[in-house]
């Protein structure tokens, strides 16, 4: 006779929060460049962010706030489509979006080369999250987008934020109120 399988709790995806050290952070430039391929209508540079950023957005935790969806093995599955004024704003937005996953649709997007495809998940006409990497085919990208949507619905939301240090390393700290 075989033994029954364990009732161990299933591990879930995680939502983590990051900031950028400044508008000159190379990670921010890379984030914006990748997003510009998926959402050309939102194409901006880090320099243009400084022209429109209110002083209140420059928090002690860093500049701006973004959220990322990670698999149980810490592989990045998705990125938020927006860059928020603070980590707290990103936190509030993702908590609200988790309850609206059934209203979201996945769209495959062709990348800068013919063999690169990504995806965007929208709620209505508003982009919510995007692919975090390129896929070789549109069908593979769409399947990854659907899987990310499913993971988003049940993901555990982190209570801390990752900030950049002067040495270039990242450190996790508790998320302060705005």
Would you mind describing this structure in some detail?
The chain has 178 residues and is an alpha+beta fold. The protein has one domain. Helix content is 28%, strand content 32%. It has 4 helices and 9 strands, in the order βααβββαβββαββ. Strands 1, 2, 3, 4, 5, 6, 7, 8 and 9 form a 9-stranded mixed sheet that branches. A hairpin with a 5-residue loop joins strand 8 and strand 9. The chain starts with 13 loop residues before the first strand and ends with a strand.
How are the SSEs ordered, and which strands pair?
Blueprint (H helix, E strand, L loop, with lengths): L13 E7 L5 H13 L7 H7 L5 E2 L2 E9 L5 E5 L6 H12 L5 E7 L6 E7 L2 E6 L6 H17 L1 E9 L5 E5 L4
Parallel strand pairs: 1-8
Antiparallel strand pairs: 1-3, 2-3, 3-4, 4-7, 5-6, 6-7, 8-9
Q: What does this entry show, briefly?
A:
With 178 residues, the protein is an alpha+beta fold. 28% of the residues lie in helices and 32% in strands. The protein has one domain (14-164).
Number of domains: 1
Biggest sheet overview: 9 strands, mixed
- Rg of Cα set: 17 Å
Q: What is the subunit organization of this protein?
A: single chain
Q: Report how far the terminal alpha carbons are from each other.
A: 58 Å
Order of SSEs, N→C? EHHEEEHEEEHEE
Strand content: 25-35%
pLDDT averaged over residues:
82
Q: Structural class of the secondary elements? A: alpha+beta
Say how many strands there are. 9
Shape: globular
- What percent of residues adopt helix (DSSP H or I)? 25-40%
- Uncertain segments are 51-61
* Total DSSP helices: 4
